[in-house]
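A.,

Following up on our hallway conversation. Structure tokens first:
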């Protein structure tokens, strides 16, 4: 499998790799690499993890301007695509239309020997793509559904297509799994088992969403959506701070009503449930992977009183943090 990403006008090659057949054979070995992306257009990192039937790629790229690159691949693949930040537009002779992804959108793509161009629009791009071998993917594709049967037929006839003509929103549950995949610290066979389980769970959520096809009319305008994402980014980057809904809304130039309704529309949960969840996830990682004590972790996650932190942790994980930490050490 050869993948090449290059500038169409100058022929400058950014990525050109020949991937081993790990993707398709019975080798259980897991391979991993990180590529530094440096060019006149911006900078970033691209992280790849590859094992039997699976290739995971994710990265964050800061762009100075729009970038137009050409993509060539000689493989067949089913891609679970997630655009977390930024916008991309792909044009290929294999598709009957231009494929455009915006912030917080996902879809499943069957790509047969792609050759085309991709435009990236920042200023920051964050994405995760999971490429599955077609025979592996079809094991999880349900029967008795017109949309899934059409997609299966396209794979068998090697016709590139999307599983659904419209992209869907990345749900809060999906974000949590994507975060688990990106931040997985396991190694070897345990990492492979963990990632494969997460991929199947993520695929389940995608397929359920496409099957239900719940597409309510959006409440938010494009500008208001950007403000909601800005609040989300602030929450992730400031778990030790406290802000009221009014403060958060004014910080991005909107009002409390729009923030509450818009956040629930995009992420499927409330602002403070989202914030509490990421606080507890970070706390769990600190308990597992650092020697910080409970009081220090409490402070780092925005709790002035360790007892309040312990109560919140127990509500989330049904165990107090001191017992969770002690079990890790035994």
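Then the amino acids I'd put at each of the 330 positions:
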């Amino acid at each position: 499998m050869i993948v090449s990403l290059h500038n169409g006008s100058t022929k400058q090659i950014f990525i050109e790799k020949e991937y081993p057949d790990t993707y398709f054979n019975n080798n259980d070995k897991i391979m991993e690499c990180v590529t530094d992306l440096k060019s006149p257009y911006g900078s970033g990192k691209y992280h790849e993890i590859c094992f039997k039937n699976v290739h995971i790629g994710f990265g964050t790229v800061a762009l100075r301007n729009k970038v137009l690159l050409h993509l060539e691949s000689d493989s067949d693949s089913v891609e679970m695509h997630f655009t977390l930040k930024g916008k991309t537009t792909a044009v290929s002779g294999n598709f009957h239309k231009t494929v455009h992804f915006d912030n917080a959108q996902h879809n499943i793509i069957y790509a047969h020997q792609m050759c085309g161009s991709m435009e990236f629009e920042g200023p920051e791009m964050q994405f995760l793509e999971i490429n599955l071998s077609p025979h592996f993917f079809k094991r999880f594709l349900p029967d008795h559904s017109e949309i899934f049967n059409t997609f299966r037929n396209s794979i068998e006839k090697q016709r590139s297509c999307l599983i659904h003509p419209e992209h869907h929103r990345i749900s809060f549950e999906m974000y949590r799994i994507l975060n688990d995949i990106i931040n997985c610290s396991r190694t070897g066979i345990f990492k492979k088992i963990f990632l494969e389980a997460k991929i199947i769970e993520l695929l389940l959520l995608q397929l359920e969403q496409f099957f239900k096809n719940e597409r309510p009319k959006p409440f938010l305008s494009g500008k208001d959506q950007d403000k909601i994402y800005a609040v989300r980014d602030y929450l992730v980057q400031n778990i030790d701070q406290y802000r009221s809904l009014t403060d958060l809304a004014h910080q991005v130039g909107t009002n409390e009503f729009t923030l509450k309704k818009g956040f629930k529309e995009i992420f499927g949960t409330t602002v403070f449930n989202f914030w509490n969840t990421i606080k507890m996830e970070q706390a769990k990682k600190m308990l597992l992977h650092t020697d910080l004590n409970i009081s220090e972790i409490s402070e780092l996650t925005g709790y002035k009183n360790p007892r309040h932190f312990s109560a919140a942790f127990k509500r989330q994980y049904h165990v107090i943090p001191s017992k969770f930490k002690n079990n890790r050490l035994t």
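Residues 188-212 form the longest helix (25 residues). Curious whether your intuition agrees with the design.

B.
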